[in-house]
């Protein structure tokens, strides 16, 4: 007896059925079925009728994403708790609020009874809260007494929580207590910065440059009457710019205030020369920031941070000293990249390791690693080669889970494979090789040679093929390859006009080129050339580097592989500097969008072998032909060839140099002995009984 469960998975429902089958394969009467329908409210149905197709499942997915982020944040905190516990950095009241029974997974490293104690605040017996770091607070008070005496005069206090920023600055140069360092570490664990993958930046328009400014208004002058009861005002800003706007409300109260602007400056096509209006003034427009402009605010904040030469904590604390009334989170400091926080925390830990032996003691490091990874010997060995600072920064606080690999979904090559032997049985097994990425330089070249070899030209008047009149030699094909190799894409009109130097002539009622190609003639239809090379050449142009830099095939391949496989911006930057330690070079290639995860039909190994007989002219080199292919070629020259293939070839082969410019099907036959992608071909001589 066995049970079979059938599921019908839909967008808004799941249908199920259960049947039982006896040992003879007969269905029993024990059949059950049902469905789970996700209810749709009336507003959802109404929106669906209007064309708004967001289903309840989409909303559930959004909630699930938020829940997943929260769970990962709590897991990071729990892991950090365990390490700080081993190091002995947690204050007693905080440590006692956490479960340390390893047998109880629901509370181990987590707060007991859903409590959320504050590390810097201890609850007293009378219910009042005591601030643990009052000595550091009084040190900070001394700073404010010096720079903001009016703020702390007559015994007035400032917020105790500002002590955190004071400690972040102090920890860069002086010793702080273990508990204070734990407070800082937990704060960094909570606010880690924005992790931006390479290529996620918005594409820049060279003719328009948007920048975020916070400028003080110097004066406001009513200029002229506008339409609809509005008045035009000339608002003079502190840097001399004049912002013209119309309003029904007087803007005189703007004077002396700081306003936020998104300033768009227009440039000529070269991206360097600034456009000017008919009066000779720079073409510049202003608008108020919106929620979508967070990226510009981010760039502005990062620019100010870099110009100051300070860490984030230092930058915030010095600003509080100079302007205590300003709002910090969400105003003065907005979302910034993670690298700024990592740099600050590393500087803090390097300095504090001089004063706290736990940060450099090997035994403490071993205990922390075993606490986190008791059963993962490989990762233990890897972390043993690092130090405590690496463990805290890279493995705990700023750990970023890599995206799950979907390599298993990539098809295997029909021609190439690896063989290995199972030691226990001696059995030989085959392991398929995954197909090549379409952005791979070898695939790009392979696809371009396919396009060129299959290209045919026809006379429009009599539809006669005239390819040999325009591409009469290997040299002509090589020139065509060189022309197309630097391009992203091509269509018929550009090819006939630019390369074949054709001009349109009157044919019937319209003007047409006297010849056409055998591909689709739609003007909108474009065929890909070498998209990868085109993208890299464009980046070289931005960096001011000559195109010959890419002539080294090994370097070209390394550069592509780096950009294809490395998604982390910091890792990509470091790898690019090893290739060329030039700032313009690194910045230009970091802006290249990640290549699409699309794949061809053959593996890289197979395509290299096929390219050796598909190239022609100066692009062909007999040294590229492998030994296996050479043996196959010699057999073909000796006459060992299928008669049907021989008829289809259309030409004779008498020497090695004849094997160039072969179409894909013939290249497959020459290299692998078959022109079909089917791996195993079976011939039936009689019907199976």
Question: Average pLDDT value?
Answer: 88
Low-pLDDT windows of residues: none
Computed over alpha carbons, the radius of gyration is: 35 Å
Number of helices: 25
Largest sheet, if any? 5 strands, antiparallel
Number of strands: 18
Net shape: globular
Assembly type of the shown chains?
Answer: single chain
Please state roughly what percent of the residues sit in beta strands, choosing from under 5%, 5-15%, 15-25%, 25-35%, 35-45% or over 45%.
15-25%
Distance between the termini: 31 Å
Query: Structural class, judged by helices and strands?
Result: alpha+beta
The strand line-up of the biggest sheet is 8-7-6-9-10
The percent range for helix content is: 25-40%
Structure description:
The protein is α+β, with helices and mostly antiparallel strands and 689 residues long. Helices cover 40% and strands 15% of the residues. It has 25 helices and 18 strands. It has a 5-stranded antiparallel beta sheet with strand order 8-7-6-9-10. The longest helix is centred in the N-terminal third of the chain and has 32 residues, at 56-87. The protein is globular and about 105 Å long. The relative contact order is 0.06. The mean pLDDT is 88.
């Amino acid at each position: 007896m066995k049970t079979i469960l059938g599921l019908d998975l839909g967008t808004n429902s799941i249908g199920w059925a259960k049947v039982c089958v006896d040992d003879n394969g007969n269905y029993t009467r024990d059949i059950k079925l049902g469905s789970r329908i996700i209810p749709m409210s009336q507003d959802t149905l109404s929106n669906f009728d209007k064309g708004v197709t967001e289903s309840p499942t989409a909303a559930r997915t959004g909630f699930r994403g938020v829940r997943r982020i929260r769970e990962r944040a709590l897991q990071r905190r729990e892991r950090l708790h365990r390490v700080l516990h081993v190091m002995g950095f947690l204050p007693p009241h905080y440590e006692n609020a956490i479960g340390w029974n390893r047998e109880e997974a629901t509370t181990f490293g987590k707060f007991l009874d859903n409590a959320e104690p504050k590390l810097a605040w201890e609850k007293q017996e009378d219910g009042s809260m005591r601030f643990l770091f009052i000595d550091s607070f009084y040190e900070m008070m001394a700073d404010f007494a010096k720079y903001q005496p009016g703020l702390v005069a007559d015994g007035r206090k400032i917020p105790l929580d500002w002590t955190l920023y004071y400690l972040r600055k102090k920890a860069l140069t002086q010793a702080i207590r273990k508990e204070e360092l734990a407070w800082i570490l937990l704060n960094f664990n909570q606010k880690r910065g924005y992790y931006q993958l390479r290529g996620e930046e918005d594409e820049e328009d060279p003719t328009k440059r948007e920048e975020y400014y916070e400028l003080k208004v110097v004066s406001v002058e009513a200029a002229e009457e506008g339409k609809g009861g509005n008045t035009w005002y000339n608002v003079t800003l502190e840097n001399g710019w004049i912002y013209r706007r119309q309003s029904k409300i007087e803007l005189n109260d703007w004077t002396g205030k700081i306003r936020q602007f998104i300033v768009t400056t227009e440039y000529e096509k070269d991206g360097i020369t600034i456009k000017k209006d008919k009066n000779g003034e720079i073409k510049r427009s202003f608008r108020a920031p919106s929620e979508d402009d967070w990226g510009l605010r981010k760039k502005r904040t990062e620019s100010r941070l870099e110009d100051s030469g300070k860490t984030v904590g230092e930058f915030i604390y010095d600003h509080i000293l100079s302007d205590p009334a300003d709002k910090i989170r969400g105003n003065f400091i907005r979302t910034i990249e993670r690298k700024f926080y990592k740099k600050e925390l590393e500087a803090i830990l390097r300095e504090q390791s001089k004063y706290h032996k736990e940060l450099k003691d090997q035994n403490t490091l071993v205990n922390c690693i075993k606490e986190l990874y008791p059963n993962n010997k490989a990762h233990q060995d890897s972390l043993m080669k690092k130090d405590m600072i690496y463990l805290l920064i890279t493995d705990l606080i700023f750990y970023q889970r890599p995206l799950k690999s979907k390599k298993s979904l990539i098809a295997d090559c029909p021609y190439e494979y690896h063989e290995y032997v199972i030691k226990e049985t001696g059995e030989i097994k085959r392991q398929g090789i995954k197909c090549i990425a379409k952005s791979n330089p070898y695939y790009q070249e392979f696809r371009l040679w396919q396009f060129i070899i299959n290209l045919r030209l026809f006379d429009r008047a009599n539809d006669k093929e005239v390819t040999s009149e325009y591409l009469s030699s290997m040299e002509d094909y090589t020139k065509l390859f060189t022309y197309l190799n630097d391009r992203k894409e091509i269509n018929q009109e550009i090819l006939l006009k630019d390369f074949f130097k054709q001009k349109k002539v009157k044919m019937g009622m319209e003007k047409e080129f006297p010849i056409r190609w055998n591909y689709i003639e739609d003007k909108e239809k474009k065929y890909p050339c070498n998209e990868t090379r085109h993208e890299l050449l464009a980046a070289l142009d931005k960096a001011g580097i000559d195109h010959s830099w890419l002539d080294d095939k090994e370097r070209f391949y390394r550069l592509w592989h780096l950009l294809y496989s490395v998604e982390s911006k910091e890792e990509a930057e470091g790898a690019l500097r090893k290739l060329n330690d030039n700032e313009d070079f690194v910045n230009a290639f970091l802006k290249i969008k990640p290549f699409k995860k699309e794949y061809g039909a053959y593996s890289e190994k197979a395509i290299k072998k096929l390219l050796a007989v598909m190239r022609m002219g100066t692009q062909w080199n007999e040294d590229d032909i492998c030994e296996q292919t050479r043996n196959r070629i010699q057999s073909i020259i000796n006459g060992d060839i299928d008669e049907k293939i021989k008829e289809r070839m259309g030409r004779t082969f008498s020497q090695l140099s004849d094997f160039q410019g072969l179409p894909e099907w013939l290249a497959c036959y020459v290299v692998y002995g078959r022109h079909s992608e089917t791996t195993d071909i079976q011939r039936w001589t009689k019907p199976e009984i």
